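Reviewers of the previous submission asked for a worked example of the structure-prediction workflow described in the proposal, so we include one complete record here. The input consisted solely of the amino acid sequence. No template or homolog information was supplied to the procedure at any stage.
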Amino acid sequence: MYPLHGRCSETANSCQGRSYDSSGRQQQAARTRTRVVEEARNLFLEKGYGRTTVADIATAAGVSVETIYAAFGNKATLLHKAWDLTVGGDEQDIVFHERPEVKAIRNQPDLATRLLLHARLSTATAQRIGPFQLMVQSASGSDPAAAAMLDEMGRQRLAGLSEMAAEAAATRQLAVPEVECRDVLWTMTDGTLWHRLVVERGWTNDRFADWLGRIWIHLLVVG
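From that input alone, the workflow returned the following structure tokens.
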């Protein structure tokens, strides 16, 4: 008799058991990868990118250095993964501006309401990306990987906000050229402005979000 499915000669129940075991191992590997990325991000923020070693990350995550190199290749890849986790807040492989909560804002027909909602989402996101942005900026002067990451972060945000600006222009409620809308949103959403006013000046997140939304409406929406 030929092996079942050409691979397993044991009983069907045994094959199912192996499939279950394989699925369990994959889930465990995914959890380990997530833990490594989380610990890498925490250490980058705590110690700085340049002062954090792969050995530090391995110790914090409870894995071997060899496991990290096998899964990620190098520390620069971990920096990229840490950024993805920071932006989205999870490990889902979904571009930020295609996430359901962002698409709901993009589909809001009234531009003023859309910008107010976007300001609130941007404020919530800034609480994650602000410290990360500053950490990468600090490391970028002496570390090529951090400098490349900083450029990539800017390109990613520009691409997403270019789409949002184009959609704003399509409402015919935009008071400025599309490229100006894009540049205003891009400039004010990297986490730096949030850090200045919330962390350094003591504003609440609600105050910042309301102020940001009003600024955008004043600058960008037809009166």
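The chain has two domains: 17-92, 94-223. We consider this example representative of the routine output the project will generate in years two and three.
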